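Archive transcription. Copying these from loose printouts into the bound notebook so they stop getting lost. Printout 1 of 2:
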Amino acid sequence: AERRKRMKALKSIISATMLVFVASSVFAAGSTDLTGQANVQGTCSFNAAAYTMDFGNLDPAAGGDVTASATIDFTCANGTAYTIDNIAGARTMAGVTVPADLLPYTIAAFANTGTGSGVLQSVTLNGTVLGTSYDIASGLRAQAYQEVITININP
């Protein structure tokens, strides 16, 4: 009977030990890390599809230099360095009716680099047509003249 008691006690101890072992392996805890991440792109865009520098009606009899300007609006992501194509310098508008007729003009230098602020920014382009380019003595044909310039802004 004593032996039976000991065996029963030993069985209880073994059962309790196994229960603790099984319970600890079934309920074992673990951990891992989750990293949230994103990359905000440095982008820039113009706020209109096209802009116009209109010199208006040029009177060959009156002559005289004529100036015009165009304000280009754009937005770049905050902190984004940008460069606008440098279109300053001597330019030429071609005749709409007779494209071989050319009217020279200039666009003045402008600040074409900077850093975006996340809000609307502007750059003003100033142009000049010299009176000697269209006055009566120049012999320039009366017609509309134009040049389309593609301007890019790059972050």
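Printout 2 of 2:
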Amino acid sequence: NDTATTEIYTLSLHDALPLYLSAVMEEVYAYIIRNMQDVYKEFFSILSEKENAPLLFHCSAGKDRTGIAAALLLSALGVDRETVTEDYMLSAEHITKKYEFITREHPELKPLTTVRKEYLETAFRVIDEEFGGIERYLIDNLEVDLDKLRELYTE
């Protein structure tokens, strides 16, 4: 029966969509690390100027580009990766209501509207495997002066 086959296929696709979207988001994070270095270089350049502190930064969704920016900044300031990840995951709690109008009707789209530990882990994996670790990435690719940044933002 064609109808039964179609219903099973639709159900399978519906169930598979969140897994697929999570994988897509992991690739988005890898892409950001590899291809948006100029943006983050400018971000750190602005942060490194004393007259710019304190500084508020955000993006339209407030979770991906901003989440990576915050993770890179905290890492540059010497915060351990576990704490950086815990900070990043706070976004999942704080943005739920923002996207409720989407996820209420389409819960399968939730991977696009939240943060997941795996997303940030993907970014860090790319940094570690392709750029020699967070410190090398910050110094060599984003031209961050770690000492200056730490002097400005840590006690």
